[in-house]
Amino acid sequence: MLAPERHELILRSLRRHGRLRVAELAAELGVSAITVRRDLAELDTAGLLRRVHGGAVGTTPAPGRSSQSGNQPTIGIIVPSSTFYYTDVIRGAEATADRYGARLVLGVSGYDVAVERERLEKVLSIGVAGLLLSTALGDGRAAEISRTLDSIDVPVVLMERAFGFPDVGREYDHVRTDHAYGAMLALRHLVSLGHRRIGINLNASVTAYWLRQGITQAAESLGVELFISPVALPARGEDPTTLAQHDKFLAECEAFGARAALVHSDEHAARLTERAMERGLRIPDDFAIVAYNDETAALAVIPLTAVCPPKLRLGEAACELLLRKLRTPPDQASATQHLSLLPELRVRESCGAALADRI
């Protein structure tokens, strides 16, 4: 199929659906995603559509949208990563912005504070009306970026961060996952299966700050014995050092009398599962595992029970909150909101799924 033919089909599909996604177009047209992206770039340059993250939308808002042509608000979104956890957060924010007729501009920091400052300056320099922000540093290190944060002169909604006084100079709207509740969900499930001693392994991440709080609360309320291992589990690899780390954690669990573990994140839990099986352990009969994040947990060699944060809904809720603030008249300023969204537990074979559930 020649490019002009593809372009006509793309525009026809856009008129019909109002929005296009690269993966769906590639399947529909029978071409590669790279070819589709090239086509979208050419049509964007010609002013026939507007490229957005993952696809394209029309050049004017669809009928029924609240915004008017030529009055499209632009909002920035700065995140530490555009992959894995934040992919769905971005998708949720993008879908909401598109629904309200707003334009989203993305900046990715790579968990680097200096890069984050550059991305902030670039996004703010184009005159965004507001900002969705998930900082490179987590809640335990808010004071280190307070000056940068407090200097932003447009409305800000924090995502997966809960900064407040005295670490920063003013209170910020935020939408975050209640990860402490997520830890409680996982441990409560393990306790319901009869486990009274449980090993914990946390990836060195921002999420671990909140997971530790939930784990401490769970130990008290559930009356179980827990230990948080200092072993840094690798997510992949077959070299002796990698295997030794897995073996060390499994040995810690055995010495502690733990026949179950909560592991953050999916990749770490999946590789631990494989190593446990290589050592002759049956999952979940000899050793039960719950993963945290549920990005790839279902694809493990034994599907992993996992806590799933509401990533897509988080992006939607944060963008909705920001857009409502932008539409509120100055003399009717809305109250600052702190929203916590609850994760859910998805039970699979690695821990607690009944045989009937596996068929």
From TrEMBL:
Gene3D superfamilies, A to Z: 3.40.50.2300, Winged helix-like DNA-binding domain superfamily/Winged helix DNA-binding domain (1.10.10.10)
DNA-binding keyword on record: yes
Keyword Transcription regulation in annotation: yes
Name of protein: Substrate-binding domain-containing protein
Domain HTH deoR-type: 3-58
Keywords assigned by UniProt, alphabetized: DNA-binding, Transcription, Transcription regulation
Region (Disordered): 54-73
